[in-house]
Specification:
Order of helices and strands: EHEHEEHEHEEEEEEEE
Shape: elongated
Radius of gyration: 18 Å
Distance between the termini: 35 Å
Number of strands: 13
Largest sheet: 13 strands, mixed
Structural class: alpha/beta
């Protein structure tokens, strides 16, 4: 498996879990995401974007990072272009770091639905802001390594069928969840989380490092 970490422009909190997730991966920065490289001590192999939101006071070493420059008026975001560049270099798995938060809610939404589309195509994708992370849920059963007490939600992007939650404070057993329902918001891991999905599109959003 060839994992690429895409550094995006959203909020990113350095955590031990984040360090483990990106260890050994290849790094591509999308425009303002280069600022995270400086904080994390990473050396991107490529910097992609229109460079309209480059952070001030970047270390001079980043001047040597190869750039792939695009016009400001284009059909894809800098993040999606960085993902395309990763696949062109052989990526089979992605960590989208800085995928949440920041001033652009539209970009955060795009990152979530893009991750689900890529997961449906067979790629492993994790979205992370350090203190929270998202994982697309495929049809079938999946186990997660979150510690007891970790807060999580299942975000439905359609009607969901056959949803089961085990190892949770509020378990579910093959329930139907209408699109837009808050039934699966704000749960808590209790004894090893396992999620099964019979049908629909959903994402697990967890908070491994809750505030405070």
């Amino acid at each position: 498996m060839t994992t690429f970490t895409i550094l995006l422009g959203g909020e990113l909190e350095p955590t031990p879990r984040l360090e483990r997730q990106i260890a050994g991966s290849r790094i591509i920065a999308a425009d303002a995401g280069i600022g995270h490289a400086a904080v994390l001590g990473l050396a991107p192999e490529l910097w992609v974007g229109d460079f309209d939101s480059v952070p001030d006071n970047l270390p001079g070493a980043f001047d040597a990072v190869p750039r792939m420059t695009f016009p400001a008026e284009k059909d894809k975001t800098d993040g999606e272009l960085a993902v395309d560049a990763a696949f062109a270099r052989g990526a089979t798995a992605l960590v989208l770091a800085g995928a949440f938060g920041g001033p652009r809610a539209d970009h955060a939404f795009l990152h979530m639905v893009l991750a689900m589309r890529l997961a449906e195509a067979g790629f492993a994708v994790t979205l992370t802001g350090g203190s929270q992370e998202g994982v697309p849920l495929g049809i079938g059963r999946a186990r997660f390594d979150y510690e007891d007490g970790t807060l999580f939600s299942v975000l439905g992007f359609s009607d969901l069928s056959g949803l089961s939650l085990a190892g949770a404070k509020w378990p579910l057993d093959r329930v139907q969840v209408p699109f837009g329902s808050s039934l699966t918001i704000s749960n808590e891991v209790r004894g090893g989380l396992e999620v099964a999905l019979g049908g629909g599109r959903a994402m697990l959003l967890a908070h491994p490092y809750p505030e405070g």
